[in-house]
């Protein structure tokens, strides 16, 4: 198997770091040295939580006599350095190649298909191979996937037949807890996905307080995410799972009644609005009370946004530009629109009291505008030099 870096490294190492003991090994290298001769039979054993499968550290013996080394012995409770919702036990489970056709995805009902992320993972696997094994639960006819849905989808798209899988014996509660704990990074799981997992945990009979304790979170964190699902139309959940509706856009629709959510989602999809534009459109719809005006708003969403929010206007992008050049072009067009709006508001300034309160903000904006003017002048100079070189070459 080829070593992996790039996108897969970022995605997989953001999952809490629970599948590696690198930090513990660094502590050993830093100041504790090698074990003495009388401890030559000492072996390091991979310690994992019996419920959630995450790595832990067992503390045995005295710190002064090499007690940080873990001895090979029957499984027994172990303590983790960080707070953990369940006890740790020793395990010597290792990742093994597993046929992709026998990996179940029933737990994937709580995860959304995000084509962009799957495509990035596909490119990473094709270039570098698999970095981290999947985490799964053994079943009679194979394994049930707990973590690694993007890797599995990308591998299937590439036509792979096997993947490295680490099978852990987990009960129903442990499966969902593991999914949360291994995806605690900021970009690993959306808020609505977390809500789906928490709702599955509540179906096991746990109270919200017990779920919060299990996940090392506050009860309000659990309550907010489960509440999101109760306010979102079920059809929109299915659209998100199929990758037809962006999770960020769905979250912006939560302030609407369920029936209006469907109508607004259809408009968002047809106009190809992103999360930010969806938020602005929903805000305009809520401020507009006249039913006829609301219909006009939804019939021409981009025109309405351009009228009330000039910064959302889509510029015509030159196909000769590189992807980075296209992003810069869009940014400059937004800057132009915001500058026009700012100039209009400053020409009719607010009261002196408001200006006094905004003094620090005005000074910061002036400094930012000065830096931007310098950078724009430098870029314009380079562009002019390139134009002169091009004209000289053609003459």
Structural account:
The protein is 53% helix and 8% strand. The chain is α/β, with parallel strands linked by helices. The chain has four domains: 13-90, no CATH class; 96-235, Conserved hypothetical protein from pyrococcus furiosus pfu- 392566-001, ParB domain; 246-312, no CATH class; 323-387. The strands form two sheets. A five-stranded mixed β-sheet has the order 3-7-5-6-4. A two-stranded antiparallel sheet has the order 1-2. A hairpin with a 2-residue loop joins β5 (134-139) and β6 (142-147). α7 crosses α8. 27% of the residues are buried. Residues 1-47 and 56-92 have low confidence and may be disordered.
Task: List its traits.
395 residues, alpha/beta, Conserved hypothetical protein from pyrococcus furiosus pfu- 392566-001, ParB domain, 4 domains, two-stranded antiparallel ribbon, 17 helices, 7 strands, globular, disordered N terminus
